């Protein structure tokens, strides 16, 4: 026997919120409704509930998860942490403190990937994202919830600082040079200053000034030998010839 299943449309948000509140315990075992359409700070929360261990649950309901639902959740969440006594007086069955912050619940027909990424980065300790379906089983309508995200962060994970993993062999490309490494602290050493007698200045020795070089006269140029001989040889005197006597 085959069962015909088809999805039924929901007319408006008010109808969607009413269906979720009526079937609130089907989302999670032990989940119960405390109130609906409650104003917390400047945000109106669609449904207020409590889980099996007494933690406050802030539920936001809509067709598509968007930033408006995210801002409403942030406003209500911060207001509850700022005024926990007011919530506990109003709902004595819930437990609320900094150690027991409220849970956030988003019930939508469609959840975009962008909303999925943003809710992971906000750092809420407990977040649940659930998709809603109104189905028809052979003429009988039923509500179906599918869990899309169940985020849990423990107190140790939120408070512990991130650990930096170090390896035995450091990368030579990223290891600091010897000049860049911090020098180990030195132990303080006591230094005593001893006054020593100042040595007498050495006597100044004056060296004799070097004698000035003597300038010798330049020698006269010597006459050539041929010129001397020509000057020394006397000129031949003319010889007178006497007439012969016959």
Summarize the entry for a quick read:
This protein is an alpha/beta fold and 246 residues long. 22% of the residues lie in helices and 25% in strands.
Secondary structure layout plus pairing:
Layout: E1 5-7, H1 13-22, E2 32-40, E3 43-50, E4 56-64, H2 67-82, H3 84-90, E5 103-110, H4 113-121, E6 126-137, E7 140-152, H5 155-159, H6 225-232
Parallel strand pairs: 4-5, 5-6
Antiparallel strand pairs: 1-6, 2-3, 3-4, 6-7
Structure keywords:
single chain, 246 residues, alpha/beta, seven-stranded mixed β-sheet, globular
Q: Please provide the ordered H/E string of secondary-structure elements.
A: EHEEEHHEHEEHH
Rg measurement, Å:
57 Å
Number of strands: 7
Oligomeric state of the chains in view: single chain
Helicity level: 10-25%
Main beta-sheet strand count, sense and barrel state? 7 strands, mixed
Can you describe this structure?
With 246 residues, the protein is an alpha/beta fold. It has a domain at 5-103 and 111-158. The chain is built from six helices and seven strands, in the order βαβββααβαββαα. The protein has helices at residues 13-22, 67-82, 84-90, 113-121, 155-159, 225-232, and strands at 5-7, 32-40, 43-50, 56-64, 103-110, 126-137, 140-152. The radius of gyration is 57 Å and the shape is globular. The model is unreliable at 157-197 and 228-235 (pLDDT under 50).
């Amino acid at each position: 026997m085959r069962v015909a299943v088809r999805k039924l449309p929901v007319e408006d948000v008010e109808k969607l919120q009413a269906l979720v509140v009526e079937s609130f315990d089907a989302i999670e075992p032990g989940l119960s409704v405390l109130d609906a359409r409650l104003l917390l700070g400047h945000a109106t929360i669609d449904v207020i509930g409590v889980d099996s261990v007494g933690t406050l649950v802030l539920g936001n309901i809509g067709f598509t998860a968007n930033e408006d639902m995210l801002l409403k959740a942030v406003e209500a969440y911060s207001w509850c942490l700022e005024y926990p006594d007011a919530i506990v007086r109003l709902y004595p069955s819930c437990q609320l403190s900094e150690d027991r912050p409220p849970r956030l619940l988003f019930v939508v027909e469609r959840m975009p990937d962008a909303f999925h990424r943003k809710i992971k980065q906000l750092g809420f300790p407990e977040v649940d994202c659930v998709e809603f379906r109104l189905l028809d089983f052979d003429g009988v309508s039923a509500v179906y919830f599918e869990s899309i995200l169940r985020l849990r962060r423990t107190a140790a994970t939120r408070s512990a600082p991130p650990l930096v993993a170090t390896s035995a062999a450091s990368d030579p490309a990223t290891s600091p040079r010897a000049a860049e490494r911090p020098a180990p602290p030195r132990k303080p050493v006591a230094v005593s200053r001893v006054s020593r007698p100042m040595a007498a200045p050495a006597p100044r020795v004056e060296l004799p000034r070097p004698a000035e070089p003597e300038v010798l006269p330049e020698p006269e140029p010597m006459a050539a030998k041929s010129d001397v001989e020509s000057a020394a040889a006397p000129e031949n005197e003319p010889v007178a010839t006497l007439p012969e006597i016959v």
